[in-house]
Structure formats: structure tokens, C-alpha cells
Write a structure and sequence with these properties.
SH3 type barrels, Alpha-Beta Plaits, 3 domains, three-stranded antiparallel sheet, about 55% helix
């Protein structure tokens, strides 16, 4: 095809429009651009003024989103308005409609991308103010931002292609198959990454918390994208996979507010009924005398094998373990003194001793001869020497 033929075909494809129709269309397009820019500027100014008077971050986010309005797209909108006013045939109207859809979708994508960034930034700042780990939250927010923005632009691209008449069924199926293949190949890594994201969002624990996971107890030192590092009570550092960690029950002792303590003890059987009845009130008085303890109940629980058993329930109104042990020790000593003054003795469990017959030993002539008895102590049998 020669250059002249190309120009002739291009000229024949252009719509036959009179200049008397072009001037009003151009003026309408320019007016549309001016109105949109003025309205956008006024809306941003009003929202900024509102943001200075309110404590919420919503208006700040709206300002940031509106500022992402693309100027080139505004001029394209004015051009499309001008084309809409021209006497064009159906073929050109169809193309203008497709271009309208693409421009609106592109601008919505820009606004959505900014909204995602602002939302994640606000989440990270709020968690940081509450004492969260900046490094872990920033990494998780970056990962989530990539995923959400990628999904947003994929949806917009598919919608534009579908509006242009492109059959996207095979493309969507290919994306699905490819996504499944990639997910199967890196499922362990993705599992840890999403577990890290879950830790950053749900906050079952944070850096500095004292936790217990299975047979591991210690202080959280770092929450990474794949692993969490815990400094154990023995001093060594334990590295756990995020996915495996979230599969177990996590006990967070830093968020412990009170401790529930169950105290059990027994007194000897030579105590009288009045002395037994006096023990629960004594324990209640001793607990209520300590402002760090809260009495729940105290009862004569039952008759043990060698003791009269009591059960006492109380709460320590502080999460500190050392403080709990100090008050537990003070309560134990005070209880010992009170019972000693009343002549009430604590019982103890003696070792179980029973005599069992040893097997008979054959004499030389075949007659059975008795063997010394064996002594069983605490379930163990001691054979004679």
C-alpha cells in the first residue's frame, strides 16, 4: 500500500462533519474540562478545611484520593464530550463509548490504588502508636499492598478488554491455571507469608510479649515474613515458622490482667469439726487483708486418704509473676501461723507401704520353701537380697 492510498483510506474513514458542528462541540469540551477542574479544586479545598476541624482520618484520605485525579484523563473526557456532540455514525459512537469506559475504569483504578495505600498506611500508623513492630507491619503492609493493587489492575484490564469485545474467557482460565500452578509450587512460602500478614493484622502477639506455644515459652524478639524468633527462658533463640506457629494455641502472658490461683492443703484427722469449720473463715480473712488479692471461695473439700482436704480459690490483681509468688508466700506463712496458734496441724501423705508374699522357691528335694516377704514402697517392689 502506497502512502497516498493510506491517506485516502484514512480520509474516507473519517466522519463527514460540518465545521458549524465542530465549534460548539469544542466549546462544550473546553467547558467540561473547566467545570471538572474547578469542581475538583473546590471539593479538595472543602475537604481540607473539614480535615482541620475533625479528628477522623476519612476526610484526609478523601483528599489524597481526589488528588490522584489525572489531568490528562480530564482532557480526554472533554474530548469525548466534544465527540459526543458531533453527528457521527453508529461505528464512531461505539468507539467513543468504549473509550469512555476505558477512561472511567483507568481513573477508578488510580483512585482505588491511592485508597489502598492510604488505608494500609493508616493501619500501620495506628498499630505503631499502640506499640507494634514497625518493621513487621511495614513488610506485611507492603505485601498486602502489592496483592491488592495487582488484583485491582487485573480486574480493570479484564473489564476494559471485555468492553472492547475481546473474549477474555480463555485468558481468565489461563490466569486461573497459572495461579494454581504457582500456588502449588510455593505453597509453603505463601503459607508463611499469609501467616505473617495474619499476625500483623490480627495481633495475637507483638514483639516483646511473653508467650507460650506448645512446649516453647519465651519472649518474642522478631516477627518476620517467614519466621518468628522467640528468646526462650533458657536463653537460646527459637525460630518457628509463622504458619506452624498459628496452627497451635498461643498463650500471651503479657496481656494477662489477673491470675486465678487454686490453693489446696490438708489438715490431720485429729482436728475437731469446729476446728475444720474455722479454717475457711481464717483463709478468707487472710486473703481479704491483702489488697493485691481477691477472695473467691474457700471450702472443706472432702476426706482424703490421710487428711481433711481444703480448696481455696483467689485472684492476684496483678499479672507480674514475681509479685504473685511474693503474695503466695506471705499467704502461706500467715496461714501456717494461724493454724499453729489453734493447734491445727497440716497433714502429709506418707509413702504407701504394703507387704506382699514372694513367690515360693523349690528346695533341692522338690518341696516348696518360703522366701522372705517383699516390701512395696510407693508402687515399687523391693526384692530381698
Amino acid at each position: 500500500m502506497t502512502w497516498n492510498e493510506f491517506l485516502s483510506r484514512a480520509a474516507n474513514s473519517l466522519p463527514d462533519v460540518d465545521w458549524t458542528d465542530v465549534l460548539p462541540a469544542v466549546l462544550a469540551g473546553l467547558l467540561t474540562v473547566i467545570v471538572i477542574q474547578a469542581g475538583l479544586r473546590l471539593a479538595i479545598q472543602r475537604l481540607r478545611a473539614l480535615a482541620q476541624r475533625t479528628a477522623t482520618d476519612v476526610d484526609d484520605g478523601l483528599v489524597s484520593v481526589l488528588e490522584r485525579t489525572n489531568t490528562a484523563l480530564i482532557w480526554i473526557v472533554g474530548l469525548l464530550v466534544a465527540f459526543g456532540l458531533l453527528p457521527l455514525d453508529d461505528r464512531w459512537h461505539g468507539r467513543v463509548s468504549q473509550l469512555w469506559f476505558a477512561v472511567v475504569a483507568l481513573q477508578l483504578g488510580l483512585w482505588g490504588q491511592q485508597a489502598i495505600s492510604q488505608g494500609l498506611l493508616h493501619h500501620v500508623q495506628r498499630r505503631s502508636d499502640n506499640g507494634g513492630s514497625n518493621a513487621a507491619m511495614s513488610a506485611s503492609a507492603t505485601l498486602l499492598s502489592w496483592g491488592l493493587r495487582g488484583a485491582l489492575w487485573v480486574v480493570i484490564a479484564l473489564a476494559v478488554l471485555s468492553n472492547m469485545g475481546v473474549n477474555i474467557t480463555a485468558f481468565v482460565a489461563s490466569l486461573g491455571i497459572g495461579g494454581v500452578a504457582i500456588a502449588l509450587a510455593v505453597q509453603n512460602i505463601l503459607g508463611d507469608l499469609f501467616a505473617s500478614l495474619s499476625i500483623a493484622v490480627d495481633k495475637p502477639f507483638e514483639v516483646g510479649d511473653s508467650i507460650s506455644v506448645g512446649d516453647v515459652s519465651g519472649t518474642v524478639e522478631r516477627v518476620g515474613l517467614k519466621t518468628t524468633r522467640i528468646r526462650s527462658l533458657g536463653g537460646e533463640q527459637i525460630v518457628m515458622s509463622n504458619a506452624e506457629l498459628l496452627k497451635r494455641t498461643v498463650s500471651n502472658f503479657k496481656r494477662l490482667q489477673t491470675r486465678r490461683v487454686a490453693l489446696t492443703f490438708g489438715i490431720t484427722y485429729d482436728a475437731t469439726a469446729d476446728e475444720v469449720a474455722a479454717v475457711p473463715p481464717i483463709v478468707k480473712r487472710l486473703i481479704e487483708a491483702d489488697d493485691k488479692l481477691e477472695f473467691v471461695r474457700a471450702h472443706f473439700k472432702g476426706f482424703g486418704q490421710s487428711s481433711l482436704d481444703f480448696e481455696v480459690i483467689y485472684r492476684v490483681l496483678d499479672a507480674d509473676y514475681d509479685l504473685y509468688m511474693d503474695h503466695q508466700q506471705a499467704l502461706n506463712l500467715a496461714l501456717m501461723r494461724e493454724l499453729q496458734q489453734r493447734g491445727i496441724r497440716f497433714a502429709f501423705m506418707p509413702p504407701a507401704v504394703s507387704v506382699v508374699a514372694a513367690p515360693m522357691r523349690q528346695q533341692a528335694d522338690g518341696a516348696p520353701a518360703p522366701q522372705a516377704a517383699g516390701v512395696r514402697t510407693s508402687g515399687a517392689t523391693a526384692q530381698p537380697a
